[in-house]
């Protein structure tokens, strides 16, 4: 490492190393954060997120926070990387999936669960279902990265193929649900999914209380909704910035239009960030997310390279986009730049298909 690079591993005050824990209708929630936020009727709240933390703690890792003097120097900010790429299944998705699946009654769970996903949620549902001892039917588009497909199979999920469109994924999943009686575990538009993802903020703000800004990848909005609801309940003045690929910028367009915008097509290297906001996630993005930063694929690739070469962490494009956003001209020219000094960046996943790279070595 260069003299400008350090690598620090943060966990909660009581655990200074990474910890691994042992092994239908949905309840709604109303925001309740004391004097900090007024009730808004969002899909999750600080109470449901704390309940989720208790429910899922036997099944997930408390992920570490890393820092790098080199990346602090490059960005001119103090950066704290929440490494969900080290999470079980290689991504944050196990938080929401395990919360949703272990919240099911025995009768609900008996016929298994079904979902549709391009990869990380699919693997997470497969793993959580395996831990619960129930079947998992996973609808995957036929252009999904091979490494993510293999994760699903490794965790025992039954793969059902769809065409590479969101509508096809939804239609195939509905058919599977009707045939099997399995419970749908939506990738993001679900109260339990949102609450589970929100546990990231509980950890991060316990690990690094001085964080004033959190940068979160945005797609369907489950991650950013949970992170935002928890973080703003803990610290109402905290700033939440979404990071989105320019080739799949429906959230930025939705925010500007004041209503959900669905794009006719998406085109980005960040395959995990191509979903559109749902009716449960949109209100949180509309009301509480402070801004959305869009970046091109070139910037995402450069951020991945920095994560590999400087931070020494393997991340997928969707996971690296937060760093790309922090380094972008859009952020550095925004009003938020001056007041964002201690920035949390969620490295959301590390499941990248390295087959092409390994083949290049052979040549």
From TrEMBL:
Domain of life of the organism encoding this protein: Eukaryota
A GO BP annotation: D-serine biosynthetic process
Region entry Disordered, spans: 1-36
Enzyme Commission identifier(s): 4.3.1.18, 5.1.1.18
Composition-biased stretches (Low complexity): 1-27
Molecular functions (GO terms): ATP binding; D-serine ammonia-lyase activity; L-serine ammonia-lyase activity; magnesium ion binding; pyridoxal phosphate binding; serine racemase activity; threonine racemase activity
InterPro entries on file: Ser/Thr_deHydtase_PyrdxlP-BS (IPR000634), TrpB-like_PALP (IPR001926), TrpB-like_PALP_sf (IPR036052)
UniProt KW Magnesium keyword: yes
Keywords: Lyase, Magnesium, Pyridoxal phosphate
Name of the protein: Serine racemase
Organism per entry: Ensete ventricosum
């Amino acid at each position: 490492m260069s003299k400008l690079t350090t690598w620090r591993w943060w966990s909660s005050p009581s655990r200074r190393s990474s910890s691994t824990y042992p092994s239908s209708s949905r309840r709604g929630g109303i925001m309740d954060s004391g004097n900090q936020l007024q009730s808004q009727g969002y899909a999750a709240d600080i109470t449901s997120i704390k309940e989720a933390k208790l429910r899922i703690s036997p099944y997930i890792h408390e992920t570490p926070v890393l820092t790098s003097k080199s990346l602090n120097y490059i960005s001119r900010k103090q950066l704290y990387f929440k490494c969900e790429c080290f999470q079980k299944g290689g991504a944050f998705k196990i938080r929401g999936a395990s919360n949703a699946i272990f919240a099911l009654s025995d009768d609900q769970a008996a016929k298994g669960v079904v979902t549709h996903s391009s990869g990380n949620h699919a693997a997470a549902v497969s793993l959580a279902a395996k831990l619960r001892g129930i079947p998992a039917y996973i609808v995957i588009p036929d252009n999904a990265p091979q490494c993510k497909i293999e994760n699903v199979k490794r965790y025992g999920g039954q793969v059902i193929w769809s065409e590479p469109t969101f509508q096809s994924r939804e239609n195939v999943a509905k058919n599977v649900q009707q045939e099997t009686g399995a419970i749908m575990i939506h990738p993001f538009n679900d109260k339990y999914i949102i609450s589970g993802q929100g546990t990231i903020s509980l950890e991060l703000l316990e690990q690094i209380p001085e964080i004033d800004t959190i940068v979160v990848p945005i797609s369907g909005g489950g991650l950013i909704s949970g992170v935002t609801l928890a973080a703003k309940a803990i610290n109402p003045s905290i700033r939440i910035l979404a990071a989105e690929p320019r080739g799949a910028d429906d959230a930025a367009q939705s925010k500007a239009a004041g209503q959900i915008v669905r794009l006719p097509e998406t085109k980005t290297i960040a395959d995990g960030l191509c979903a559109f906001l749902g009716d449960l996630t949109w209100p949180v993005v509309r009301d509480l997310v402070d801004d959305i930063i869009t970046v091109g694929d070139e910037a995402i690739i450069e951020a991945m390279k920095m994560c590999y070469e400087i931070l020494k962490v393997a991340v997928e494009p969707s996971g690296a986009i937060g760093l790309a956003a922090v380094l972008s001209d859009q952020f550095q020219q925004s009003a938020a730049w001056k007041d964002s000094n201690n920035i949390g960046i969620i490295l959301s996943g590390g499941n990248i298909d390295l087959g092409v790279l390994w083949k290049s070595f052979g040549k």
